[in-house]
Amino acid sequence: MEDGTCDDLRKWHTRLVAGMSGAEAQRLLRQTGLKDAELAYVLGISVSTLRRRFRQRRLRSHEGDCLYRLTVILGAAPVAWLRQAQPDLDGLRPLEVIRTEVGYELIRDMLAADARSGPGMEPDRPSPA
């Protein structure tokens, strides 16, 4: 993952509006060890709908946007952390919070504060494929 330049963000925007590839979502699942149910929850869809998106080869733009946010956070925090209840999130797990823009910002702020207080986890934007 690299710093998100304006050009990178424009490319991401274009991909999200067009509909992100279901293959990208499948690749993310394989690379991270996320379960279908976890990714479906983050995207706000059922597992059967997620699998249909894989077959149809396109995510809707709002689903791709959620996947982008998840990708950014996964650049800074391991999946195991996303599954653990966090006191700064009122005991919720980051996977329960990340599906909204506000939740995403809360998680980014947490990770940035952790990075300022020690080595570790400041999220970077992913570069588009």
Overview of the molecule:
The protein has helices at 6-18, 22-32, 36-43, 47-56, 61-74, 79-82, 94-97, 101-117. α2 (22-32) crosses α4, α3 (36-43) packs across α4 (47-56) and α5 packs parallel to α8 (101-117). It contains eight helices and no strands. The termini are close together. It has 129 residues and is an all-alpha fold. It has one domain. The longest helix has 17 residues, at 101-117.
Shape assignment: globular
- How many individual β-strands? 0
Mean of all residue-level pLDDT scores: 80
Counting structural domains, the number is: 1
- Determine Rg (CA atoms, Å): 14 Å
Largest pleated sheet: none
Q: Could you give the distance between the termini? A: 10 Å
Percent of residues in helices comes to 55-70%
What proportion strand? under 5%
**H/I helix tally:** 8
Order of helices and strands: HHHHHHHH
Poorly predicted regions = none
Structural class, from helix and strand content?
Answer: mainly alpha
Layout of helices and strands:
Elements: H1 6-18, H2 22-32, H3 36-43, H4 47-56, H5 61-74, H6 79-82, H7 94-97, H8 101-117
Structural descriptors:
129 residues, mainly alpha, 0% strand
Summarize the structure.
By secondary structure, the chain is mainly α. 63% of the residues lie in helices and 0% in strands.
